[in-house]
Write a structure and sequence with these properties.
The protein has 281 residues and is α/β, with parallel strands linked by helices. Helices cover 45% and strands 16% of the residues.
């Protein structure tokens, strides 16, 4: 039975997930594979590269650096998060991503993007990391409106959360039967319709599937939550929720808030340590 880890996105709320999996990493708890969406992939990759605290560290280090993210980047590149600096210069030169360890670790790693021409999810397994591969990470983390589409293999891609916010069902379909699912919203949360759909339709008029995805995103997300609840009751998954709403914006760079969200994830991980061990065993 293959054991998996499923990581929801949510921008800087993903630091909660990183705190939790850092505890798992420190305690030597492993899985056979993992899949992440957006921030879930961007922070989750550090689990496979064995770099505890890296996501928190570089966000604090570069939070005031205009090369990293902000309106200067948006008006010069069309991306709120600078594509070259954040996804290439930083991981390859400044806060170096341990590619050798990532590639040597046997844990399978998948991320999710949205093909904005078809409105369908694209699931990509990352085995090797090089400059070109890092564009997949940029794609899964590229939110509509504040990001330009990422072109890979003839596809135009954006944030996978547009079409598959919590990719548990896909992971089960490829053989992962026993999964830990880490969410970045508290238990009982329900997504409401997005009032900005007309704006998405106007801004991304070349890609009407984006507005269509946003129109139905709350339905997809809430259905996934219902499925997760059913799977939890059957004992197939262990669901990790924050204890309270994470009061942090998707692109928040306030250091005390970043540290608090990460610490909440660590505390949750320590509190559930034995439960995690028992579930995976």
């Amino acid at each position: 039975m293959k054991r998996g880890l499923v990581l929801e996105g949510g921008g800087m709320r993903g630091l909660f997930s990183e705190g939790f999996i850092d505890v798992m990493q420190e305690e030597g708890i492993t899985v056979d594979g993992m899949i992440g969406v957006s921030a879930g992939a961007l922070f989750g990759c550090n689990f496979k590269s064995h770099q505890v605290g890296r996501g928190l560290r570089y966000n604090i280090r570069f939070k005031d650096d205009p090369r990293y993210m902000g309106w200067r980047s948006f008006f010069t590149t069309g991306n709120l998060v600078n594509p070259r600096f954040a996804y290439h210069t930083m991981p390859l030169e400044l806060d170096v991503f341990d590619i050798a360890t990532f590639e040597a670790d046997p844990t399978e790693f998948y991320l999710v993007c949205c093909n904005i021409e078809t409105g369908k999810p694209v699931y990509m397994k990352i085995d090797h990391v090089e400059d070109a591969t890092l564009e997949w990470f940029r794609a899964t983390g590229s939110m509509p409106i504040v990001s330009t589409p990422v072109e890979i293999d003839g596809m135009k891609l954006l944030d996978g959360g547009l079409v598959d916010c919590i990719p548990l069902q896909h992971f089960q379909s490829i053989g992962y039967e026993r999964n830990i699912v880490i969410l970045t919203r508290p238990k009982g949360y329900q997504k409401t319709p997005n009032k900005m759909v007309p704006f998405f339709r106007l801004f991304h008029h070349k890609y009407p599937k984006i507005a269509e995805c946003m129109k139905h995103r709350h339905e997809m997300y809430n259905a996934q939550l219902q499925y997760i609840e059913e799977q939890a009751q059957k004992g197939n998954i262990l669901v990790i929720y924050p204890d309270h709403p994470l009061s942090i914006g998707r692109i928040e760079l306030d250091e005390p808030k970043l540290r608090a969200i990460y610490q909440h994830g660590r505390e949750k991980g320590l509190a559930m340590l034995e439960q995690v061990r028992q579930f995976l065993s």
